[in-house]
Amino acid sequence: MQRTNIYLDERQCQELDRLAGSRGVSRAALIRELIDRALGNDTDDLATALAAIDESFGVLERHEFRVERRPDERWAHLEDVAGG
Length: 84
Description:
With 84 residues, the chain is an all-alpha fold.
């Protein structure tokens, strides 16, 4: 691997850090992935994507999520559809 320096503006750095953080990877790893995609060397294929989905299945099973919604147009529509 070779080291290189590039100049990024503040917005680019913030967006890279946000995306890298959401994926749990470093900024450098994300930049390498994005460059591979741009160059057509993307190793992600359908099988890899499906394997990642399979590995993540059930990961939030032990967490309880509670979503409270206020009645709105969508809620009323769903109630009508459900026969309520």
